[in-house]
Amino acid sequence: MKHLISPSLLSADFANLKEDIDMVNRSNADWFHIDIMDGVFVPNISFGFPVLTAISRYAKKPLDVHLMIVEPDRYLQQFKDCGAHTITVHYEACTHLHRTIQAIKDVGCKAGVALNPHTPVAFLSEVIGDLDLVLIMSVNPGFGGQKFIENTYEKIRQLIAMASAKNESLLIEVDGGINLGNASDLLKAGADVLVAGNAIFAAKNPEAVIDELKNIAVS
Ligand code: DX5
Ligand code: ZN
Fold it and tell me: Which GO terms describe its cellular component (predicted)?
């Protein structure tokens, strides 16, 4: 499968959001990455349902919703109603992760789990067969534009080893500090979905960066 590109709207221009949505619609990107932060699970607040509803009115590609919030179960139906295609919750935010994964599927979304940089991949061994996606955080969540953590490559390899035995269709998404300098190595290591915020939206020509990320050849 050709890898997927999921531009993070966190780095978009919120005063001209529709222009950035249209740019992603036109581009070679596959998904919209939507970062929801609650100021409790992470030390930052991003945006909520009214903005997400507005995004989904214009977005023509699946909404890849990354919930950096505590107690995500309380809001799954609302995220689905706002247009979420995939809902990814944090391992560290879910006491009853197995139940939460089932609840995401029950509302009709694809189910993902994100791992903070300090959380071992092995902690997913009992649920990996139930997941559509695992998101490996390659920065500490909360902010765009941070430095990529190199240990991510090792985690991708461990996840591939685990998934090859238990879930061959699992998508491996990587999020944080991704740019044209490390994207190729991430794909070689086995990433399926690359999230990029700053590298795309701070560029002079965001559409061209998306194109370059999408066209990286992986042999
Ligand atoms: C970080 C978010 C990321 C972030 C990525 O907490 O989950 O999706 O927006 O932005 P860059 O690519 O700038 O690191
Ligand atoms: Zn994210």
Answer: cytoplasm
This prediction has a pTM of 0.98
Q: Which two tokens stand for residue 119?
A: 């959380």
Those residues whose beta carbon sits under 5 angstroms from the ion ligand 2 are: 35, 66, 175
In three-state form (DSSP H/G/I as H, E/B as E, the rest C), the secondary structure along 159-196 is HHHHHHHHCCCCEEEEECCCCCCCHHHHHHHCCCEEEE
SS3 165: helix
> What would the pLDDT profile of 146-165 be if each residue is shown by its tens digit?
999 999 999 999 999 999 99
**CA of 179, closest atom in ligand 1:** 12
Q: How do residues 52-72 score in pLDDT, each as one tens digit?
A: 999 999 999 999 999 999 999
8 Å CB contact between 82 and 50: no
Interval between CA 166 and ligand 2 midpoint (Å): 25
- Atom number, ligand 1, closest to the C-alpha of residue 177: 14
Domains in the chain, ordered, with CATH? Answer: 4-214 (3.20.20.70)
